[in-house]
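Let us work through a complete example step by step.
Step 1: write down the sequence.
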Amino acid sequence: MTRAKPIEKKDNPELYRIVENLCITAGLPLPRIYIIEGAQPNAFATGRNPKYAVVAVTRGLLEKLEKVELEGVIAHELSHIGNRDILLSTVVVILVGIVTMLSDWFFRISFWGGGRRDDSEGSGGAILALLGIVAAIIAPIAAVVLQLAISRKREFLADATGALLTRYPEGLARALEKISADPAPLKVASNSTAHLYIANPFRGKSSRNWLARLFLTHPPVEERIKALRDLKM
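Step 2: predict the structure and record it as tokens.
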């Protein structure tokens, strides 16, 4: 979906050395490394566990970031692998799906069951049916909000863990500044893969109001940079 192409060590020795050194520090097996041909600096990691992990970086990331900044980004992505965030997000997505299905089932029971109630039950049954319908509507929304809140917390954790790997939080902070400020689009990005990237791949589509922030997959970059610069190494 991202059109990422696998590379070998001979294709980009410097990138391979960075990944290898950080994997040794983190105690992780070497993941497969992919490059996305895109001008926007960005990266993501995926894989159900460290043994089957993948780190993908864009061409723009390799061309526009300094070595310490690139190390910060790679360390962040390896932290997602080490923290098993992909597995966690998969479990959370499944749980959200279960809540949504149960809510749909409860909604149908409340709606059709309420229509067959005897008039002798009075208004109490109608109120319970109404409450059931409201709960069935709100539950999946609340589940999605919780899922996204977990995703944002894991981004903060990956930032902090990555900074511990490199012992230089400023590298990742500077990388996030460059990534968020770069105007180049990432044509291969889609709504189904955007949450994987280290920063939102869509340009000019982020909102700052509190309601929109509830549905963000990543914390605001400004907050992440501040948290990194507040770290004491």
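Step 3: interpret the result. The first strand starts at residue 5 and ends at 6.
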